[in-house]
Design a protein that fits this description.
By secondary structure, the chain is an all-alpha fold. 60% of the residues lie in helices and 2% in strands. It contains twelve helices and two strands, in the order ααααααβαβααααα. Keywords: Membrane, Transmembrane, Transmembrane helix.
Length: 210
């Protein structure tokens, strides 16, 4: 068993280094923690050799040194996610005054950008409808609502897709189900935002408030 102890300790140290790398996300913390580990590695190697050998942790200085380099070289890795937000990727996008820009709205805009596209030179308002103003319909609308349901844990409640969207042109069965629903009703960004904030879809409440 003793011959495997060093390997077991090595795997545990690698796992600990991976946990540290995933847990520390702020650039400042990654930089300082990286510097500390970068210095600690050589210090352990030079001044604590006997203790390290006695504890069978011969790989500890190397793991500390390598982890320190890793943290320093990737200190801004978790900042890159923000650069993908549509507000930064499309700086010409016009948002109406008092348009909410909290994390929920940013995530919603990101999803809308990915699923149906957002215009860069058209003012985006809470009253902007994704079916009339942004042209979302058919299978595109189906994918969008499925993504909203999954990403935001949204309970769609009494949501009726045919109240807002036409079914895919090629799906005769769905077109028959949608028959008789009458004129479509605007489905606005404000309605989606409110539904996400309350985690539920109540058609009458959302349409009245919108």
């Amino acid at each position: 068993m003793n011959e495997y102890i060093e390997w077991i300790y090595l795997l545990l140290l690698i796992a600990l280094a991976a946990i540290i790398d995933r847990s520390i996300r702020l650039p400042v913390l990654r930089r300082w923690f990286g510097l500390c580990l970068l210095v600690t590695g050589p210090i352990l190697l030079l001044y604590a050799t006997s203790w390290i050998r006695g504890a069978q942790l011969g790989s500890l200085p190397i793991i500390a040194f390598v982890t320190g380099i890793g943290l320093l070289s990737t200190q801004n890795i978790y900042c890159k996610v923000k650069a993908n937000h549509p507000l930064l990727r499309a700086p010409t996008m016009n948002l109406a005054p008092n348009f909410p820009e909290d994390p929920v709205m940013q995530q919603l805009l990101q999803l809308l950008h990915e699923e149906i596209g957002l215009p860069k030179h058209k003012t985006i308002r809470l009253q902007t409808s994704i079916n009339f103003d942004l042209g979302c319909d058919g299978s595109e609308a189906k994918h969008l609502m499925e993504a909203l349901e999954q990403e935001f844990a949204l309970d769609l409640g009494d949501y009726d897709t045919y109240r807002y969207f036409n079914p895919p042109v090629f799906d005769v069965f769905l077109k028959r189900r949608a028959k008789g629903r009458g004129e479509k009703v605007p489905l606005t960004i404000g309605m989606l935002y409110l539904a996400i904030k309350t985690h539920s879809w109540d058609t009458q409440t959302l349409e009245n408030l919108s």
